[in-house]
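Lab manual, section 2.4: Encoding a predicted structure.

Procedure: take the sequence of the chain (123 residues), apply the prediction step described in section 2.3, and record the output as structure tokens. A sample record is shown.
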Amino acid sequence: MIKLEDLEVYKEAMKIGELVCEVVQKWNYFDRDTLGKQLIKAADSIALNIAEGYGRYYFKENKNFCYYSRGSAYEAMSALKKAVNRKLISTADYSSLKVNFERYLALMNPYIKSIGTGYQMTQ
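Recorded output:
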């Protein structure tokens, strides 16, 4: 079985959490305390749910946590769109982050399909 840290989808999810945190840290207190906290929680939840599912014994549970991870990615993307609308980040920064989310989603869907097949996606 491949190690969690070697899964490309997990690596991308970890990267997203750090990139989002860097963005939010630049905001003023009010924006960090409102939208920022929720955005960071959603972004961090992407990798954390992959890890929790990976540690589960049953494939069905692992898949469920991957679905939660994917849901958190959509939540974070919506929060980033709100950040653009509120002029907290530029459209260029949003577009740059969106590339990471698209890569994550492109990796997550095949990873979910691979769970329980004996073959786990590394890329």
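Check your result against the sample. The chain is about 75% helix and 0% strand.
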